[in-house]
Design brief:
mainly alpha, about 5% strand, Tscrpt_reg_LuxR_C, nucleotide-binding, LuxR family transcriptional regulator, ATP-binding
Length: about 900
């Protein structure tokens, strides 16, 4: 009966706790259900802790599986926890019945006075409820023995309303024991699976890598206990590999994770296990396939597994496990004879020739030259289909089935498998194939190709691969092949940009790669090297950048083997986006999307979706942009890509057309993931997304701090062109909002000449919006209004509706400050119309706030700035200078100086007068 220690999995359960509390408050009874490990107990304990805090009496009962076979075991455990004072008032027979039960719980029940025992339990509960409410928390109700359940059901019918009951039962919304105990109609609260966001929060709380949240969510099905176990297993695997666990590796279902998965699988009857194992071994299981493979009762058995929350069966018969770790655990726990038989049955049942070959290969473990050749042909077919991960898996299988007398064929298959894995981003398969290559008598060229595959599979996380780079360089030198040396230098150029944040070294490495590629006659590599040079040139404001890109585009490169994201055609799209040539960028992207979907590279598809998101958002098509962002995020989770870029894209889409709160959450997650992977490029972008949200939601001090981090990172990365990441105007606006218009002006004066010299017209417009706000704060409202009106017209001409709407919001703010209410209202109405047409919901909500929040001084009244108004509200509400400084992220001296100006503007001399003035406004 002892309770076992459980990890803190109480994430995302605030709404559930409130729902249980309401049910207990109105009905006195509540039922909590959910699968094992879903967090039911954590919710129940949170409810009990709240009752404890209110000084209520809490009785806890948590039977275990073995207790259901011992009559009255749970009743004895409950009474053993009751304070002795509650037993003193019992009549003799009742006291004796309880004493006998507590003393001889497992003794024969014959001869006991069961009526006295029932009345004794009723009297004990009434006594405990006399001074105040009692909460009976019954966890694991499904393990109640029948006699205890009957006893409690009788007692609870006769107890006063102050005896409340929370019964927790395992299941998928069905709680027969708890419902029988509490009565029909008792409110039932089901604990749902955690979402990917909540899994990320859970991992962060336990110090685990948040960048794996998407994949852990997929593998755990949102089960908190399994998610934590997978996270810990991953951390242990990283420790055994010297800290080098990769985002694309399959999550290790070992140790604690396997035990949790086993407990979940035990919820289904034992006779369903063979069918579940077949489903686990199949790539795309269906009920029809399982029947053909020898399970005639597949539907009925899967229905039982579905009730145990292990699988979901679609209307078309498709079978999906609720957690990705479950099929892995099933296969791992099955013996070789079971797995072999299962694969043999599936080989005869599947209708895809490639899958049939795969199952036949997995059904045997002996070398076979003919089978190895057949597997190789299947891998070639997968490559043509764009199924590069499956091609890599088949390539490894083909190598394993190759007889010892064919070493050349085995090496070719291993190198091919490594390259397929690199293309697919499967670091685990790439490392496995590369280890096998390095353990054989491979040529320097084969060794280099295998090592390059490991680098290609790493995605954004290149910082930990210095040793791999070093070996690849040395072996490429030994091979004396300019094309191989060019390939290595290309990867070095990418690393200098992504992980080192050094565009100069990246540009120089790309130049060396281009010269080597040209010497080796490799025009594809030459085009990619020129592409890197052009990309770095744009960052560094190199005037030759566009000419270099044009040179790359002129080379014949019909298919880029290292990804469309590294091709000149894609960089041309990015440059069009930077220049706000949005129609051009969009048409190019829509032409690229089918091409990258055919290649089978998830990273290529993500890149195109990312750019489509940015294009649509800037065009003011927020709904379409959000749809692209969702697809990009889903793809990232499904393919196991580095999540930092996807979370940045999701943040920008939410900030434009969804929710500022969700945007901030995605941005913070992206920041954390990019920091974990040492991805300097997307770290800047995540911070930029967060800073813009903080600015929009009025957290000026936080926005300044966040955007200054962006400025530091961009300076460290030597970024010169302000069109690549447009943080300058955002930081200037944040400085104005934080009452530092002089600092904003200094920043604007430093960047405006650069933007003008480069011809970055949209950037200049954004800088002028910030300058208009600075002019207003510095006492030049007429100049501010004129500049903002002109800027709004320029944004309209540029086809940038969201930027125009933001400018109209700024104009309304300035007009209110100069007490021109009608022009302010007109600007707000116009902004609202712009945002409504664009589907920019969070900005529309801001525009509709045509008056300050209740109790706030109108910006026109007394000419308070927004920053001054926030401080006035805090101080007028009773906050001390120190408290206000902490709340607004200011120094106490700044608060004192700003408060002096507020007093002067409002004509008051004390805090009391300030409060009165605020009430008047």
């Amino acid at each position: 009966m002892a309770a076992t220690a459980k990890a803190d999995t109480n994430v995302g359960h605030g709404v559930l706790i409130e729902a249980v509390g309401r049910a207990l408050g109105t009905r006195g009874r509540a039922i909590l259900t959910g699968p094992a490990g879903s967090g039911k107990s954590e919710v129940a304990h949170a409810v009990a802790a709240a009752a404890d805090a209110r000084r209520e009496t809490v009785l806890r009962l948590a039977p275990e599986a073995a207790d259901r076979h011992i009559p009255e075991a749970s009743a004895a455990a409950l009474l053993a926890s009751v304070p002795g004072c509650a037993l003193d008032r019992l009549a003799g027979p009742q006291r004796e019945a309880i004493a006998l039960l507590r003393r001889e719980a497992d003794a024969p029940r014959a001869g006991r006075d069961h009526v006295a025992l029932r009345l004794a339990v009723v009297e004990v509960l009434r006594t405990l409820a006399a001074p105040g409410p009692v909460l009976l928390l019954l966890d694991n109700a499904q393990w109640l023995d029948a006699e205890s359940a009957d006893l409690l059901r009788f007692a609870l019918r006769l107890t006063p309303p102050r005896v409340r009951v929370l019964a927790v039962e395992r299941g998928r919304g069905v709680a027969p024991v708890a419902e029988a105990l509490c009565g029909p109609g008792t409110p039932a609260v089901h604990v749902p699976a955690l979402g990917a966001d909540e899994v990320a929060e859970l991992l962060l709380r336990h110090g685990l890598p948040a960048r794996l949240a998407g994949r852990i969510h997929q593998a755990s099905g949102g089960n908190p206990r399994l998610a934590l176990a997978l996270g810990h297993s991953l951390a242990e695997a990283a420790g055994s590999q010297g800290g080098c666990a990769h985002h694309a590796d399959p999550l290790p279902v070992a140790g604690q994770a396997r035990e949790v998965a086993r407990r979940l699988l035990a919820e289904a009857p034992a006779h369903t296990r063979p069918t579940l194992l077949l489903a686990a071994l199949a790539t795309r299981p269906t009920t029809a396939l399982l029947r053909r493979a020898g399970r005639p009762d597949a539907e009925a058995e899967l229905a039982e597994a579905e009730r145990a929350a292990l699988v979901a069966v679609g209307e078309d018969g498709a079978v999906a496990f609720t957690a990705g770790a479950l099929p892995t655990a099933l296969a791992a726990d099955a013996g070789w004879p079971e797995r072999s038989a299962g694969h043999a049955a599936l080989a005869a049942a599947v209708d895809d020739p490639v899958q049939a070959v795969r199952h036949r290969a997995l059904a045997v473990d002996t070398p076979d030259a003919e089978l190895a050749a057949e597997i190789t042909r299947a891998a070639d077919a997968c490559r043509r289909r764009g199924q590069r991960a499956l091609a890599a898996e088949l390539g490894l299988l083909a190598a394993e089935r190759t007889p010892a007398g064919l070493p050349a064929e085995e090496l070719d298959r291993l190198v091919g498998a490594a390259e397929d894995a690199g293309w697919a981003g499967r670091a685990d398969l790439a490392r496995r194939a590369t280890r096998a290559v390095l353990a054989r008598d491979a040529s320097p060229a084969q060794r280099v190709r295998a090592r390059l595959a490991v680098i290609d599979a790493a995605g954004q996380a290149l910082a930990a691969l210095d040793e791999t780079f070093a070996f690849a360089c040395a072996e490429a030198d030994a091979a004396d092949d300019p094309s191989l040396l060019a390939a290595v230098q290309l990867r070095i150029a990418w690393k200098h940009n992504l992980s080192d944040g050094d565009p100069v070294r990246s540009r120089d490495a790309a130049a060396e790669a281009g010269a080597l590629a040209k010497a080796g006659g490799d025009q594809v590599a030459e085009a990619m090297a020129l592409t890197v040079r052009a990309r770095m040139g744009r960052i560094l404001a190199d005037p030759d950048a566009e000419d270099i890109l044009a040179e790359a585009l002129a080379l014949p490169a019909p298919e880029v083997p290292l990804g469309m994201r590294n091709a000149p055609q894609y960089l041309a799209v990015r440059h069009a986006l930077f220049d706000d040539r949005l129609a051009d960028a969009r048409s190019r992207l829509l032409a690229l999307l089918p091409a990258v979907q055919r290649t089978g590279s998830a990273e290529d598809v993500f890149e195109v979706l990312r750019s489509l998101t940015e294009v649509e958002l800037r065009r003011g098509h927020c709904v379409t942009g959000a749809a692209h962002a969702r697809r990009a995020l889903e793809l990232t989770i499904e393919a196991g890509l580095s999540p930092g870029p996807a979370w940045y894209v999701a943040a920008t889409a939410e900030a434009a057309g969804g929710s500022f709160a969700r945007a901030a959450a995605y941005a913070r997650r992206g920041i954390r993931a990019s920091e974990e992977e040492h991805d300097q490029v997307f770290l800047s972008r995540g911070l930029y997304a967060l800073g813009t949200v903080e600015l929009a939601t009025g957290d000026a001090a936080k926005a300044v701090a966040t955007l200054r981090r962006v400025a530091e990172l961009e300076e460290a990365q030597q970024v010169v062109d302000p069109s690549v990441l447009r943080w300058h105007g955002e930081l200037a606006e944040a400085l104005v909002a934080a009452d530092d218009p002089a600092g904003a002006t200094l920043l604007l004066d430093s960047v405006t000449p650069v933007a003008r010299a480069l011809g970055r017209t949209p950037v200049l417009a954004a800088l002028d919006r910030a300058r208009g706000l600075a002019l207003s704060a510095q006492g030049e409202p007429e100049s501010a209004v004129a500049l903002l009106e002109d800027t709004a017209r320029r944004f309209e001409a540029l086809g940038l509706p969201l930027e125009r709407g933001r400018t109209l919001l700024a104009l309304a703010r300035v007009e209110r400050r100069r007490r021109r209410r009608a022009p302010a209202r007109a600007a707000l109405r116009e902004a609202a119309e712009v945002f409504e047409r664009a589907g920019a919901e969070p900005w529309l909500a801001l525009a509709r706030e045509d008056a300050p929040a209740a109790g706030a001084p109108r910006p026109g009244a007394g000419a308070l700035t927004d920053a001054e108004a926030r401080l006035a509200l805090l101080v007028g509400g009773g906050a001390s200078n120190q408290e206000a400084a902490a709340k607004l992220f200011l120094s106490v001296k700044t608060v004192e100086a700003r408060l002096t100006r507020i007093y002067q503007k409002l004509g008051v001399r004390s805090r009391a007068q300030l409060a009165t003035a605020l009430r008047g406004h």
